[in-house]
Amino acid sequence: MHDALAPLSVTPVTHSVPMAKNHRSDQSPATTASRLSPGTVLDRLASGPSRSARITHTEHLPPRAGRHAVWPDRIRSEVIAAVQACGIEHPWAHQALAAEHALDGDSVVVATGTASGKSLAYLVPVLSTLLDGAEAPNGRGATALYLAPTKALAADQCRSVKELSQPLGTAVRPAVYDGDTPFEEREWIRQYGNYVLTNPDMLHRGILPSHSRWSSFLKSLRYVVIDECHTYRGVFGSHVAQVLRRLRRLCARYGSSPVFLLASATSAEPAVAARRLTGLPVVEVADDASPRGELVFALWEPPLTELHGEKGAPVRRTATAETADLLTDLTVQGVRSVAFVRSRRGAELIAVIAQQKLAEVDRSLVRRVAAYRGGYLPEERRALERALHSGELLGLAATTALELGVDVSGLDAVVIAGYPGTRASLWQQAGRAGRSGQGALAVLVARDDPLDTFLVHHPEALFDQPVESTVLDPDNPYVLAPHLCAAAAELPLTEEDLELFGPACADVLPQLEAAKLLRRRTSAWHWTRRERAADLTDIRGTGGRPVQVVEAGTGRLLGTVDASAAHSTVHEGAAHLHQGRTYLVRSLDLEDSVALVEQADPPYSTVARDTTSISILETDTEVPWGTGRLCFGSVEVTNQVVSYLRRRLITGEVLGETKLDLPPRTLRTRAVWWTVTEDQLDEARIIPEILGGSLHAAEHASIGMLPLFATCDRWDIGGVSVPLHPDTLLPTVFVYDGHPGGAGFAERAFHTARAWLTATREAIASCECEAGCPSCIQSPKCGNGNDPLHKRGAIRLLTALLRGAPEEQPEQSS
C-alpha cells in the first residue's frame, strides 16, 4: 500500500559533443548497423502482428542545431588551450553563460539535457580560478570542493579533471577523498589538494567534524560544485541541505564565502530547488544550446498472458522478459544499446536471458551482451565502459549506476524497463542514446503497474509536460535536529546561526535542551555528549539503528538495512538481494539488530504484507471539495508486518503466503487526506457494501499515480482508507510520507490534488480489465491482500469528489 509521485516538467533529451575523452571513431563493429535510422530499427523490433500492437505511441523529436559562444575573457588562456586540445574549439552558449556567472560570484545551477557539457560549464571557471590562485604570493591559493551523490561518479570526474588539467601542470591538484581513500593519502589531500572530490556522506561524517584539520582548505574555498543535484530530493536531499548549511557556517568562520555551482538534469524550477538545497540565491541556466540528433521515442506495453494473479486478475508479460527480448533483437541487428533496469537482480536476469536467446541465433554474439550494476569493482566497470565504447559490447543491461554522469553517451538505442520514477530520470536515461548529429531510439517498456499503464496510454503526460520539481524539506524537525547537534559539536551554536538553519530552529532547540543533547551557556548552545554528534543520523537513512545483514555460515557482514525497512525486507524467510546474489533470511533479531542470512537461489521473490492504522495529530490546511474536504497535516501511523508472499520471479504468480509475528511500529509524519459525505456517496451511487472497496481502490491507484507529481517512488509513501475514520467521522483516504517528519511528497500531493486525482481516475477508467488488476487498482504491498477492491465504485467516487474540486489549488511555497 505504498506508492508515490512527483511534479512535472522537462526539455526533451539533448545530445552534444561531450568532453574530448568521449569522442570516438565510428569505425566500430556496430558502425554499419548503427547507420540505420532509429525509425528503421523500431520497425524491425515491431515486425509481426503481435509485436506491432505493443507500441502504444511513437514520439519523434526533431534534431536541433547547437549554438556556440565564446568563453568569458577572464578565463585563463591556458585553460582555454587545454579545452581546445581535447577537441572542443568553442563552448555552447549555456556553458559560456554559466562560466560568466561563476566568475561574477553568482551561485548558478546549470539544468540542461544529458551530454550537454554541464561538467565543462563549471570546470572551466574553477580551473581558471585555481590557476590564478597558484600564482598567489602567499598561502596555498584557491581551493574547490566537488560533491557527487556516488563514489563512482566522483572517481569518474577526478579522471576527467586530471586529463583536462594535465597541460596545466601542478597548479591543479585533484584528489578523491572518500571512505576508500587510503589513510596515508588523506593528510596530503588536506594539506595540498586544491580540487577535492567527495560525497555528502563524507562531508557530513568526515570533513565537517574534523574542520580544524581542513582549516587552510576551507579558508581558501572559492567554489563548491554540486553535481547531479536533482538526485538530492526527499529526506536524503533535506539532510544534504543541512550539511551544506553546516559547511557554509564553517567557511564563514574561516573567512571564506564560496560560490556554489550546481549541475542538474533538466528539471522544473531548478533555481528554486537549488535555493532550497543551498540556502542561497541561485541563478538559473536552463536554455540548452547543445545540438541534438533525431530521437524516436516509443512507448511499449507487454501483452496480457493467460496467467492470473490475485483475485483472478489478468497478468501482463513482465517488463523484464520483454526487455530481454528487445535487447536480444537489437544485438542481432548490431545496434549498440543499453537496457536500464531498476534492480540489480533485474539487470543480471535480463543479461542472462538475452545471452541464452543469442546462443540460439549465433554463439559469437553471447559475449557481446553483459550486465552493469553497482557492486562491481571499479576495474570491472571501466572494462565494461571501454568495451561498450569500442563496439566490442553491443548490449548492456544496467542499473541506474550507469545513469549518473558515467560517460557512455553515443549509444544507438536505450530500452527502459519500467518507468524510472520521474520524467527527469526518464530523459536522463534516454539521453544516453545518440551520437553527435545522429539519430537515436528510446523505448519505454511498461511494467504491470498503474503509473506505467497510464503513461503508455497517455503520452502527453510524458512528452507535453515539463519535468518534475525537486521536493525537499530542510525544516523537517527529524532532519534538522541531528544537524543542529552536529553543528554545535563543530562550533558552539549562536543566535546568529539560527537564521542559517531555518525558522524551525525555534521549536527544535528547546527539545534538544530537554533531551540533554544541547546545553545553553551564556549566548551559545554546546554539544554535551562524548560520542560524535555526526553519528546521530545517517543522511541516507531514516533514523534508528541499522540492521546488520550477516552471512550465517561465515559471520561475514554483507551490509546493513535501514531500521525502518527491516521489518519488510529482512524478516524471517525474506529473499534478500545483495550484490547480485540472493540470500534467504534465517532469522531477524530486532534486539541486537542482526539478520542472519544464507545464500540461496529461490525461484521466487518475497513481498511483505502489513496492516496500517492512522490518527490525525494536527490539520494544517483544509480546502472544501464540494461537501467533502481536502486536508494536509501531521499524522501518526501504526504499521505491523503480518505476513509475506512468495511470487514467481518471471511471471509474478503468487506461490503462497507465510504469517509473521513482528511488533508494530509507529511513525509521525505528514499526510494529505480527503473525505466524502453522504451526499457525495449518494451522487456516486456508492452503497455501504461497496464503500470499503471503492475507497481502497482509489487509495491504491492514487498512490500509484503520485510519482507523476512529486519526485518520489511509490515505495516512499503509504496509504490508508477507512469507511468511517474516528477523527473525521467520514469515509476518508490518507496518503502519507513514509519518513519521520515527512519528506515533502504529501505536501506536493495536496498542492496538485486536482491534477493528481484526475489522473488517478483516468488511470482506473482507461484500464481494459474488468474488475481491477495490477495495472490499475491492485497494489504489490497491500496489507489486506487487495481485498476488498471495487473498480467501478472508485471511478464513480473520484468523479463525484472531483466535481467539487476548486478550479485553483493554492500553490506550494518555495
Description:
This protein is of the alpha/beta class. The protein folds into 5 domains: 38-60 and 292-464, Rossmann fold (3-Layer(aba) Sandwich); 77-285, P-loop containing nucleotide triphosphate hydrolases (Rossmann fold); 477-535; 547-602, no CATH class; 611-804, no CATH class. 35% of the residues lie in helices and 23% in strands. The chain is built from 27 helices and 30 strands. The strands form 6 sheets. It has a 7-stranded mixed sheet with strand order 1-9-16-15-12-14-13, sandwiched between helices. Strands 4-5-3-6-7-2-8 form a 7-stranded parallel sheet, with helices on both faces. Helix 13 packs across helix 14. The longest helix is centred in the N-terminal third of the chain and has 20 residues, at 234-253. The protein is globular, with a radius of gyration of 27 Å. Residues 1-34 have low confidence and may be disordered. Keywords: ATP-binding, Helicase, Hydrolase, Nucleotide-binding.
SSE blueprint:
Elements: H1 31-34, H2 38-45, H3 49-52, E1 55-61, H4 77-85, H5 93-103, E2 108-111, H6 118-134, E3 143-147, H7 151-165, E4 174-176, H8 183-192, E5 195-198, H9 200-207, H10 215-219, E6 221-226, H11 234-253, E7 259-264, H12 270-278, E8 283-285, E9 295-300, E10 304-308, E11 314-316, H13 319-332, E12 337-340, H14 344-361, E13 369-372, H15 378-390, E14 395-398, E15 413-417, H16 423-430, E16 440-445, H17 450-457, H18 460-463, H19 477-490, E17 493-494, H20 495-501, H21 505-514, E18 518-521, E19 524-527, E20 547-551, E21 557-561, H22 563-569, E22 575-578, E23 581-589, E24 594-599, E25 604-625, E26 628-648, E27 654-659, E28 665-675, H23 678-683, H24 688-705, E29 717-722, E30 732-737, H25 745-751, H26 753-766, H27 791-803
Helix pairs in contact: 5-6, 11-19, 13-14, 17-26, 19-21, 24-26, 24-27, 26-27
